[in-house]
Design brief:
The protein has 19 helices and nine strands. It is of the alpha+beta class. A hairpin with a 2-residue loop joins strand 7 (142-152) and strand 8.
Length: 455
């Protein structure tokens, strides 16, 4: 198997919620297609009459509730996920007939949300989240076409995609077993290995990596801070009230002691997840749908456990290793493996981050991650009404609590008694996802999404 060459800053990305596969990936697709269109010869662009976009799989099933249309329009208008202000998205897709002028560098066409067509949920394309962009002339002839795949976590691929040239990792690995061999043979700590690989793959300096990590930390903290102080209802027809401010106030009343600490942990996860549901800026960790878990543990580390900046950075590097392994050997996409790939992976990453930032060495870090992921196996993705609200928001809180509990178990029980390694549970997660019905993979056709609407 090819070694992992994913960058930390591909796994952790800044962008608008509520779903990285449904907003960040499609926004990137819109921007990419505009770049391709503008590069066409003038005589081809002059023929352009309309743009047609077809969405398949879970993009079709839940794209309306996930904000996929407005994300695509935003990309077509030149916005990128990391620099797109929330108010831009809030003001898009208010009506299917609302017109937008697309500038192909001197040539303009009118585009509306109704030109984005929700196509088949079940299909034969290589990935569930498939998008077909077509630039057509007046006769309906295709002038330009690209088949995109939003593969989860904001990652975007397309038919004929080739991985960009990048450096070779200094310590190549594709499994936890290989990773452990490097750590032992080279007498190196986990965060040092991930850091060296990041430098080799991307060419970034250590200071540049730390600066980018600090930016991620700031965005995660801001999501929590904003979420615990913002009241009211979340957007969408469900009318769901935010819970984070109330939960946080109860934690404060308890002086963060006893159950007050657990209430605070829940509040922090709810806060970031509610900000994601509102379409505000979050960090994919590893996805937007799971963007509340790691920030909650990070907030606890900084505000309750007194972790230093270097310890937080090292913890994030350790978390990256877990995310890399799951993405490489299974999936972090709810459309492929259900929510076990999203909140389950986030919980495993958060447990690893907590253990590592608290000074535990590699074996305890792996055990923490394994326990957290193991107890998310089989978790379905069944968003009610196609909105990343029920059960997604509370599921982030449960993932954060499970991460903390996994850390407690791993650091209390004798490590030599631990029976299951991370590679085994990742394999089990992949097989479980493969056998899971498509109804439970972000299509809102089964589970809670169905039982909530049966009345």
């Amino acid at each position: 198997m090819q070694p992992i060459t994913t960058s930390i800053f591909e796994l952790f990305k800044i962008g608008p919620g509520p779903s990285s596969s449904h907003t960040i990936g499609p926004m990137k697709a819109g921007a990419d297609f505009m770049t391709l269109t503008r590069a066409l010869p003038v005589e081809v662009k002059s023929e352009a009459d309309r743009l047609e976009i077809r969405l398949f799989g879970s993009l079709s099933a839940t794209g309306a509730g996930h904000g996929t249309r407005k994300a695509i329009i935003s990309g077509l208008l030149g916005h990128s996920p990391e620099h797109c202000p929330p108010e831009v998205l809030d003001n898009l897709d208010r009506s299917p007939s609302e017109q937008h002028e697309l500038d192909f560098t001197g040539n303009f066409i009118t585009f509306t949300a109704s030109d984005i067509i929700m196509d088949a949920v079940e299909h034969d394309y290589p990935h569930s989240n498939t998008m077909i962009f077509r630039l057509l002339n007046k006769k309906g002839k295709s002038l330009l076409e690209r088949e995109y795949y939003s593969i989860g976590g904001g990652f975007l691929r397309w038919l004929g995609y080739e991985e960009p040239q990048r450096g070779e990792p200094k310590y190549p690995y594709s499994s936890m077993g290989t990773l452990k061999e490097h750590l032992t043979r080279n007498d190196i700590r986990l965060h040092e290995l991930i850091l060296e690989n990041e430098k080799a793959i991307t060419g970034l300096t250590e200071d540049e990596i730390f600066s980018r990590l600090d930016t991620l930390i700031e965005v995660m903290e801001h999501a929590v801070e904003k979420g615990i102080t913002t009241c009211g209802k979340l957007p969408g027809p469900i009318g769901l009230h935010r819970k984070a401010p109330t939960m946080y106030q109860h934690a404060r009343n308890d002086h963060f002691q006893g159950s007050g600490f657990v209430k605070a942990l829940n509040a922090y996860a709810l806060a970031a997840s509610e900000e994601n549901a509102a379409g505000h800026c979050v960090v994919t960790a590893p996805t937007a749908g799971a963007a509340g878990v790691i920030p909650a543990i990070l907030f606890v580390l900084k505000r309750h456990l007194g972790a230093l900046t270097d310890e937080i950075r090292q913890g994030l590097l350790a978390a990256s290793a877990i995310g890399f392994l799951v993405k490489h050997n299974a999936s972090i996409s709810g459309a492929e493996v259900g929510c076990q790939g999203e909140v389950g992976t986030a919980s495993a990453m958060a447990a690893a981050m907590l253990a590592y930032a608290r000074g535990y060495r590699f074996q305890i870090t792996e055990n923490s991650a394994e326990i957290a992921l193991e107890h998310h196996l089989g978790l379905t993705c069944d968003p009610v009404g196609g909105f990343v609200q029920i059960p997604c928001i509370e599921r982030n809180a449960m993932g954060a609590v499970k991460a903390y509990n996994a850390y407690l178990i791993a650091t209390t029980v004798e490590a030599a008694y631990h029976m299951v390694d991370l590679d085994k549970v990742v394999r089990a997660m992949k097989e479980t996802g493969r056998d899971m019905s498509h109804k439970y993979k972000e299509t809102s056709e089964g589970g809670l999404a169905l039982s909530m609407t049966e009345c």
